[in-house]
């Protein structure tokens, strides 16, 4: 893939979570996703603009999606629906390249943040970066690939100042 010098990112955020935990978090998702994609530029399909959506939901909703798409009847922290893995019709030249959808369970993120003794912001960013890597074709079928992916996630969070 050819590295690019400039591109834009459109990020759509949908909060379907009914709790108040996200109300006080004004997180710069579009800025983070753009920075992360610039870090991952060598793995991106060449385009002038990219689009990603993030939906925040409950354990109940993500469990239903996990059952429907992965045949796992349990909640999970993040699901990634990669548009690059399916044959979508070609978009107009001026349309952003649709990378896919991320669905993040805020219930699970809250539990994991507490168990890891860090903030909800760190956990949500961690899950979004993990999902974004999946949208770009990363996977973790074994421990070695998982370690590579976790290392890349840490680099992404450092690049936006979430962790040091």
TrEMBL record:
GO terms for molecular function: metalloendopeptidase activity; RNA endonuclease activity; zinc ion binding. It comes from Stanieria cyanosphaera (strain ATCC 29371 / PCC 7437). PANTHER family: ENDORIBONUCLEASE YBEY, CHLOROPLASTIC (PTHR46986). Binds 1 zinc ion. One of its GO terms (biological process) is rRNA processing. Signal peptide: none annotated. Keywords: Cytoplasm, Endonuclease, Hydrolase, Metal-binding, Metalloprotease, Nuclease, Protease, Ribosome biogenesis, rRNA processing, Zinc. Coiled coil: none annotated. This is Endoribonuclease YbeY. Zn(2+) binds at residues 130, 134, 140. It is found in: Cytoplasm.
């Amino acid at each position: 893939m050819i590295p690019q010098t400039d591109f834009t990112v459109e990020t759509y955020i949908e909060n379907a979570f009914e709790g108040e935990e996200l109300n006080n978090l004004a997180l710069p998702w579009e800025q983070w996703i753009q920075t992360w994609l610039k870090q991952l530029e060598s793995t991106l399909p060449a385009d002038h603009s990219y689009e990603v959506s993030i939906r925040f939901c409950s354990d109940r909703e993500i469990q239903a999606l996990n059952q429907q798409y992965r045949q796992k009847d349990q909640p999970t922290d993040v699901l990634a629906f990669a548009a690059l893995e399916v044959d979508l019709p070609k978009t107009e030249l001026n349309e952003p390249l649709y990378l896919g959808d991320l669905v993040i369970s805020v219930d699970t993120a809250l539990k994991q943040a507490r168990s890891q003794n860090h903030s909800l912001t760190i956990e949500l960013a961690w899950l979004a970066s993990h999902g974004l890597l999946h949208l770009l074709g990363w996977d973790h079928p074994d421990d070695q690939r998982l370690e590579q992916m976790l290392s890349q996630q840490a680099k992404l969070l450092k690049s936006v100042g979430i962790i040091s």
